Amino acid sequence: MEVLLANEYGFCFGVERAVEMTEEALQQGATVRTLGPLIHNTQEIYRLTREGVTAVETPDETDKSVTAVIRAHGVTPEVQRELTERAAQVIDATCPFVTRVQRLASRAAAQGRHVVVVGSPDHPEMIGVKGYAPDHAFVVRDASEVENLPPLHAPLVVSQTTLKLKTFLEAAEAVRAKADKEPEVVNTICSATRDRQDAARSLAGEVDAFYVIGSRHSSNSMKLLAVCKEQCERSFLIETQDEINEADLADAERVGVTAGASTPNWLIEQVIERLREIGKL
Ligand code: SF4
């Protein structure tokens, strides 16, 4: 049985950077606390917990004995200020792609313009970005929600980094009808999610079974599974190699593997090793 890995898989740039920054702080002997779980992967969170990294919910759970880590989603300027006051040190692991959206929003608000951010209002990334344009920003899920906005002044339109392009373009078009000037539309979608989905899609058509490695609460892993299922009926989401059911691989000659953007390499390697063992049986 041949085991084939998708061309793009696993940790995205921003998540890998956040984990590396956290580990560097640990190596320097710091007591590390992340503001919210660092990534959406249960096994990697367990591993970090064993190394001494735990999560806090709010800045007031930190004090001068800890190094606080801001995860890749970023936070509002108020939360960053509070952390800086309370913690011994703050490591800002906000993904640079998210920082770009925060800066664009901040600049537009300083110019007295409205900011429309297309994304999920409850997502931490969106809460953070909105905080950079207080009293000027609106977060909308899609074009239908633009209808409810007040008249917009010289708006900037940006997107959550993981949004679908179609949703963003439709919302930007709807903003145009509400604006007193031509909106400034900046596509801030990051390619990591799309690249993983495109690579999985192209491999799924060539294999007999497909494994997506990721946590069930990781939305990008669940989306990868949906993409694989379109091409390969025997597609499964697994968190670890222990969830591989040999019976699912009966008669399979080629097996595809991919992993969500929060899945660490060590988990991927364990799954590949297990599949190769089964392939030799
Ligand atoms: S998905 Fe993109 S924007 Fe989000 S953390 Fe990863 S690289 Fe950064």
Commentary on this structure:
The structure is a single chain. By secondary structure, the protein is of the alpha/beta class. The protein has three domains: 2-10 and 191-280, 4-hydroxy-3-methylbut-2-enyl diphosphate reductase, catalytic domain (Cobalt-precorrin-4 Transmethylase, domain 1, 3-Layer(aba) Sandwich), CATH 3.40.1010; 13-94, Rossmann fold, CATH 3.40.50; 97-185, 4-hydroxy-3-methylbut-2-enyl diphosphate reductase, catalytic domain (Cobalt-precorrin-4 Transmethylase, domain 1), CATH 3.40.1010.20. It contains ten helices and twelve strands. The protein has helices at residues 13-27, 42-50, 77-86, 96-110, 124-131, 143-146, 165-178, 191-204, 219-231, 265-280, and strands spanning 2-5, 32-35, 54-56, 67-70, 89-92, 115-118, 137-140, 156-159, 184-185, 209-213, 235-238, 254-259. The strands form three sheets. Strands 1-12-10-11 form a four-stranded parallel β-sheet, with helices on both faces. It has a four-stranded parallel β-sheet with strand order 3-2-4-5, sandwiched between helices. It has a four-stranded parallel β-sheet with strand order 7-6-8-9, with helices on both faces. Helix 4 (96-110) runs parallel beside helix 5 (124-131) and helix 8 packs parallel to helix 9. The protein is flat and about 65 Å long. The chain starts with a strand and ends with a helix. The mean pLDDT is 96. The site of iron/sulfur cluster has 14 residues, from helix 1, helix 4 and helix 8.
